[in-house]
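Long-time lurker, first post.

We've been arguing in lab meeting about whether 2-acetamido-2-deoxy-beta-D-glucopyranose would sit comfortably in this protein at all. Half the group thinks yes, half thinks no, and nobody has a model to point at. So I'm putting the question to the forum: if I give you the sequence and the SMILES, can you give me back a predicted structure of the complex? Inputs are below. Any interpretation is welcome too.
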Amino acid sequence: MAAAWLAVCRARFEEDYGSRPHIVILLADNVGWASVGFHRPPELPAREVHTPNIDALAAEGMELARAYWYKFCSPSRSALLSGRLPFHVNTFNDDPTMVGQGIPVGMTLMPEVLKRAGYATHFVGKWHVGMASRSKQIPVARGFDSSLGYFHSNNNYYDSRRGQGCGVAVDLWDGEAPSRLNGTDYEERFFCDRTVKIVREHDPASPLFAYHAFHTSCVGWNATTDDLNLQPAWDWYAKFPFIDDDDRRKNVAMVALMDACVGRIVGELKATGLWARSLVVWSSDNGGAVHAGGGSNVYPLKGGYFNNWEGGIRAPALLAGGFLSMSKIRTPAVLEGFVHAADWLSTFAYLAGVDPTDEAARAAGLPPIDSLNVWPLITGANRTSPRVEWPLTPLSERFGEEHTELVGGDAAYMLAPYKLIVGDKIAQANWCGQIHPNTSVLWDSVNDFTNCSWAPDEGKYGCLYDVVDDPTEHHDLAALMPEKAYELYTRLRDAQARFFDPDRGPPQEAACRLANTSGWWQPWLP
Ligand SMILES: *[C@@H]1O[C@H](CO)[C@@H](O)[C@H](O)[C@H]1NC(C)=O
Ligand SMILES: *[C@@H]1O[C@H](CO)[C@@H](O)[C@H](O)[C@H]1NC(C)=O
Ligand SMILES: *[C@@H]1O[C@H](CO)[C@@H](O)[C@H](O)[C@H]1NC(C)=O
Ligand SMILES: *[C@@H]1O[C@H](CO)[C@@H](O)[C@H](O)[C@H]1NC(C)=O
Ligand SMILES: *[C@@H]1O[C@H](CO)[C@@H](O)[C@H](O)[C@H]1NC(C)=O
Ligand SMILES: *[C@@H]1O[C@H](CO)[C@@H](O)[C@H](O)[C@H]1NC(C)=O
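Top reply:
Settle the argument with this. Predicted structure of the protein with 2-acetamido-2-deoxy-beta-D-glucopyranose, as tokens:
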């Protein structure tokens, strides 16, 4: 039945659009809502942000006004690649030396699905979804034909090293072997070179799937401090002497370099003629890091990276490429419908003409995909988004010691247009200014709390917002609409009954030993 239906869709699709698009995902890291030019109010100094290439794509393509992700990195990437909501794949990526970290081995990932439709598949940049086993978890074991990138998060931008509890080693890997590009350049540059080369050498007879996951504007590991800090390329940093706050200046410089890479990749797609059939998604993987040392800005949204306020989960995003403007597509300039990271899998599978149902996961007893095809929404064929609800973060959230001050304890559920947040002490309960961070007022976001406790006996029903009418979350509706709060709370509890939280296993000393002796973080199991 499903197959027959798919065949009908496919026939209609072929009639409408010809053959499969080239799909290019450009995923930025922690880039805030206000860190791109197309979200800046015109009265602000234009030179504050410098994203001419991304702005041009937004202008000629389509802004995705409600692209939702997890409140931090690995669950977002796991959702994108697996087509699951984080509740069903990963809401917290533990120590990378645990065998079961990242995306469970039995789940089928996006490149494997697209390969069934003949796609050539390539990965560049930040992986962060599991790497213990060479034959099961690294990118080339999960459907990518080629891969250049790092396995963990936050390696150093200049030498690609990462200290990770049990040692310091280079985190950079090319296909099935260590990459020797470490220390040869600022890593965003050789990542960009690789993707440009992939595009240049692609045989247009087959469709292309390229997933370029930028490091920018996430912090990198610093050997001197054994901590994380913003690491711009100094030539780009030098272009912004007029920015008073040093973190803001570094962040703006990093985002500007990323924008230049977007320009190079798009330029190569055009030079090779692939552009006409390309569908490009540019998005951040979550909101901006607005806390001290993050340098990002999510104005006018509330909160930021690590929390479930809109500034943490609603990312700047756009769609572009010749495929989007092909005949018969009546795309709006700004897509207001909700789209979750998990929804790209079914959307691309539909465009590729393959069924995304994950039989392997079913056989392994793992949760099925949650992904919903949003292509009818994108084309304007159906103005209603199929993505109306999802659980964000469970009650009694588990989180790492590193981030206790920020993450943790903000359970949440979305039932559009409402979002319920529950927790006693939810950080970053405030707003960035238009120019943030700045040298005149420091917002200590980590210590700025709201109590959204669930205590019906005391007349407290969490914090409830209508994120469509009140996108900046200034008006808590919980006391006015306790029945609505109850409805979302009940749905959250129901979702929690099906929460996927496998034992990820203990940290493995073998991982550290191999990193120590070889000099590279790498899979330690066959
Ligand atoms: C790359 O890393 C290896 C292993 O740590 C090291 O020996 C080598 O010097 C590094 N290369 C550069 C150019 O820094
Ligand atoms: C690492 O931290 C030290 C001390 O704060 C600082 O001087 C240095 O510039 C940092 N390195 C990078 C690459 O940011
Ligand atoms: C439009 O999409 C919504 C949400 O998926 C669905 O309920 C509705 O049936 C669709 N309408 C048509 C005409 O297909
Ligand atoms: C939050 O409110 C609840 C209910 O009134 C109360 O029990 C709790 O102590 C408060 N927590 C904090 C951190 O203020
Ligand atoms: C400076 O930053 C603070 C905190 O984000 C903000 O309240 C203030 O409005 C900012 N100043 C300007 C000029 O944007
Ligand atoms: C790896 O090296 C670090 C630093 O020298 C050391 O603390 C750690 O014990 C080593 N781990 C293993 C498993 O060899």
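For your lab meeting: The radius of gyration is 22 Å. The mean pLDDT is 93. Whichever side wins, do check it experimentally.
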